[in-house]
Amino acid sequence: MNSWYEKCMPKVKDIKPYIAASVEDFKKTAGVKSVYIWGSYFDNINNPDYRVRDIDILSKTQFHSGDLIAIDKKIIGDFCSDSYLENQGYDPLAVKFSKKFLKIAKNIDCWAISSDRKLLHWGPIFINKKESEEMNQEAEKYASQLTGVERKKVNKSAEHIRKNWYNSYGKYINQHFKDMPTGWYKTENIKMKDITSKAIKL
């Protein structure tokens, strides 16, 4: 079932069984109200042979954005009692949610909608859609120039070509975030209805 993420830019049909099998785990996570899938997988869900660059899972949660933003990679990796977390100013349930979400969501971009209707992403990200789209376009252009393969032709390319293209794309994106700590990051100027209208509730 997990063989899909061993492939570089897997096809929609490779991912679909994994998404279906993981839905119940996401829903059972304490603090999760509902789960959505969005991004390029959603945009191409009816095109089984489309190769997706990213897989985005979005959880609507009961946690305030401030409690999620306080959580970073270090506290996720530590084994701490609820009383210790509370004394340090953390919401223990929000920490447990983050740990479980990240454990379930291997090779997936983790997003969350907080109780105060903010959109958050695990790991550094551009704060608004315009910046994100511009960076993606720049990264795709960089990968295409470096590999000699246009984005639209990557879909039908051999595995090693896709891997080179994807690695080049990732390298360009990552250099902009290399000094930023890992944790929950809040986006800005996002309307919830714009997100849910472009997502599938699982």
What does this structure look like?
The chain has 202 residues and is α+β, with helices and mostly antiparallel strands. It has 2 domains: 145 residues, no CATH class; 47 residues. The protein has 10 helices and 6 strands; from the N terminus they run αβαβααααββαααβαβ. It has a 6-stranded mixed beta sheet with strand order 5-4-3-2-1-6. Helix 7 crosses helix 9. The chain is globular and about 55 Å long. The N terminus is likely disordered.
What sort of overall outline do the alpha carbons produce when their principal axes are compared?
globular
Mean pLDDT: 84
Low-confidence stretches: 1-5
The portion of residues forming beta strands comes to: 5-15%
How many beta-strand runs? 6
List the helices and strands and how they pair.
Blueprint: H1 12-28, E1 32-38, H2 40-43, E2 56-61, H3 65-69, H4 73-77, H5 82-87, H6 92-104, E3 109-113, E4 119-122, H7 129-147, H8 151-154, H9 159-174, E5 184-186, H10 192-196, E6 199-201
Parallel strand pairs: 2-3
Antiparallel strand pairs: 1-2, 1-6, 3-4, 4-5
In short:
The protein has 202 residues and is of the alpha+beta class.
Keyphrases for this structure?
six-stranded mixed β-sheet; alpha+beta; 10 helices; disordered N terminus; 202 residues; single chain
